[in-house]
Amino acid sequence: MRKRTLPLLLSLALTACAVGPDYSRPKFDLPASTTTQQASVASDWWQQFNDPVLDQLISEALQHNQDLALSAAQVDEAAALAGIARAQLLPSLAANAGYQRARTSAETTTAGSPLIADVRTANLTASWELDLWGKLRRSSEAARATLAASQYNRDAARLSLSAQVAQTYFQMRAFDAQLDIAKRTLDSRESSLQLRQKRFKGGMTSELDMRQAESEAASARATIPQLSKSLQQTETALAVLLGRTPRELLEGKLQRGQAIDLLNVPPSIPADLSSSLLERRPDLAAAEAQLIAANARIGVAKAAYFPSISLTGALGSQSLSMETLFSGATRTWSFVGNATAPIFNFGQTGLNVDAASARQRQALAQYQKSVQTAFKETQDALVASSAAREVQEAQTTQLTALNRALHLATLRYDNGYSSYLDVLDAERNTFQAELNLVNAKLDRLNAAISLYKALGGGWEMPPSN
What we know:
The chain is of the alpha+beta class.
């Protein structure tokens, strides 16, 4: 009977089904392919801007950023937990050794037997929980999905970090350009103020013209510390992204590469807003992996309705002396089968299933929202990229016209055909237009980064997953 029972239990353990729902990807109402040309993004997309300093900064950030270090540690933790869940599917083997010295009662001890005896034991114990209902398999499935989610989250963090470094670097270069514009404007207005002061002292112009020139010079002077403060804060933010030490944050200097007006704007990307986007974004893959894990945990909860069966076998030796511990006469063995079945627990098992099902619905809602957000971000990035290009072109045309207007206003004032107010208006408008053009170029660069990020930054789903 025993010889037939063990093979039967092993056969059941290997062929049993797993309770709980099997995962299938939710159906989405997705748009059809919008282009015949597949959007192609290189994994090193930032090199499209042709700035070696930017390439170096992103490489440094990917090596030293603390958020990435946190993500890597989370992947290691998830890998260890997945290994634990996988190991629970297999038998375990333990070695035990013991020594006992004891005195027995004289009234209960057989005559002639010693009252004090030493007992030595050594044995190997093997145990295995039969996964007849798939509780351990579902648990392993959930752990593997959680590991995949942590890996995808790490990839998403790398993509986000690369985009942050690029955007912060471009912001720094924009502030550099605007600070240079402000300083040049201040030099020009101080020269104009000195000229107005000389003319006022010579009776060639009014005090009103002099005070207006003084006001405009002060306005330009006030802009410089504001831009300097913003530049310093941006440099510090970039240093943190790079993983610099506190000393380097305070004492280190950041390299500069191309000026913002010389930075290359990558060509437009033909973005295909179809189901292929689901396979190109690591954040969507992470959200789906979390859904897979939550779905598997329903099976873990449902398995609690069924009996739990475990097998334990021991082989060893027990002897009164060390010399005979491993002789044939001292051999011991045991085989134990144990079954535990739930009978009544005031509905705890059903409530655990309800809780697992609710968490699965939460993960489903989060996944669906992530898909919606992905398409929104991609569409927004496409619109922003097109709009930023048009804005920059318009700002360039405006600045050209204002520079010409300033030249004409200065000629008219110098020849007595107009008031100094026309010159001030032209100078003020030109200064603001120069700052706006820098912002327009920055917006165009940021729009390109946002589009790269929205399209997954060249990320691809690992074939094994």
